[in-house]
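Tip: read the tokens left to right.
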């Protein structure tokens, strides 16, 4: 990528997600890192462009309120649940909402001092740690990183937590409307012995929909950052990928659905995905290979991907794709080449 020397200039990083509260790990990690590439010197400047709209589920919120008020989550033999599982910051936000609105003058609220709280990763753990309780919540599983690893961790840890019981008290799993079943399936596996099998009850505490304003919001931010010699778009889920590609001018409105034209890339706007699932969607659905796929689905994974990226490699890849589009075969799965640098996903 050829760039005139610009001196000190921030590099916009457009995060296609809702900013987490009370703090966002992606914003903290990216904004604290200096950036230097060729003639560009400055810092990464994250900006949020929400794709998904989250709302609390009233029935789920009321159920959590009732459980906490009646102290049904505890070590007691008659407790309904012996611990809680979190794999989403949105679920933590819903839970925090209940805790904040029910605190009153009770210094022991929400009465979870003696139960394990399981968290899938550092971002979820960070959100849990700000929930007020004295002493603080006992949080486990931060280093697991995914549902399967967390389930394996829980199988060992929870058995030790209630080692004196022939059967284990069920766990409460706070989830969104859309979720994977890996944790309940593994913990309730019929192949487990009865003293290790853990019943898991899922309670939906939030729902998700597509932000109607995303396309317009994304277009506005792209216009505001058009002066930057380099900028990044970070994609966190398959939702909104079509609008993202449309906003970048890569979708061909005159062709069948899924057609993209790589020749329209501006050479300074790069795309990173949070992990292989989103990358696979872009490749199989649109025939678009992102510039970076984070090795780990985390703020550090995105940071290392951006910092370690070589614009020269982008230039070589783009030229190779254009050559392939003129008649050669691209052997990468999910990619069919069409006229010139345009291609159609399957």
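Filled-in amino acids:
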């Amino acid at each position: 990528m050829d760039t005139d020397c610009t001196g000190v200039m921030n590099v916009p990083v457009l995060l296609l997600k809702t900013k987490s509260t009370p703090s966002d790990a992606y914003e903290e990690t990216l904004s604290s890192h200096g950036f230097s590439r060729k003639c560009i010197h400055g810092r990464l400047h994250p900006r949020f462009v929400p794709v998904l709209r989250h709302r609390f589920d009233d029935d789920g919120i009321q159920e959590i309120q009732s459980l906490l008020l009646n102290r049904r989550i505890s070590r007691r033999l008659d407790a309904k649940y012996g611990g809680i599982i979190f794999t989403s910051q949105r679920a933590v936000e819903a839970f925090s909402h209940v805790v904040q609105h029910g605190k009153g003058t009770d210094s022991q609220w929400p009465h979870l001092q003696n139960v394990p709280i399981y968290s899938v990763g550092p971002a979820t753990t960070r959100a849990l740690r700000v929930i007020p309780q004295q002493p603080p919540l006992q949080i486990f599983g931060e280093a697991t990183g995914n549902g399967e690893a967390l389930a394996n961790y829980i199988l060992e840890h929870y058995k030790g937590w209630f080692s004196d019981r022939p059967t284990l008290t069920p766990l409460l799993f706070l989830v969104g409307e859309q979720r994977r079943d890996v944790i309940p399936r593994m913990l309730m596996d019929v192949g487990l012995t009865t003293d290790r099998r853990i019943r898991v009850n899922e309670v939906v505490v939030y729902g998700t929909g597509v932000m109607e304003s995303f396309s317009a919001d994304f277009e506005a931010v792209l216009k505001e950052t058009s002066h930057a010699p380099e900028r990044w778009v970070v994609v966190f889920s398959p939702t909104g990928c079509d609008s993202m590609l449309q906003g970048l001018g890569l979708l061909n409105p005159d062709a069948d659905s899924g057609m993209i034209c790589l020749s329209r890339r501006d050479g300074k706007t790069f795309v990173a995905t949070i992990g292989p699932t989103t990358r696979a969607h872009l490749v199989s659905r649109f025939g678009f290979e992102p510039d970076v796929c984070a090795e780990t689905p985390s703020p550090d994974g995105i940071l290392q991907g951006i910092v370690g990226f070589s614009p020269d490699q982008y230039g070589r890849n783009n030229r190779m794709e254009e050559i392939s589009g003129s008649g050669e075969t691209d052997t990468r799965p999910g990619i069919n080449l069409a006229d010139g640098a345009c291609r159609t996903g399957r």
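The CA atoms of residues 6 and 40 lie 6 Å apart. The longest helix spans residues 147-161.
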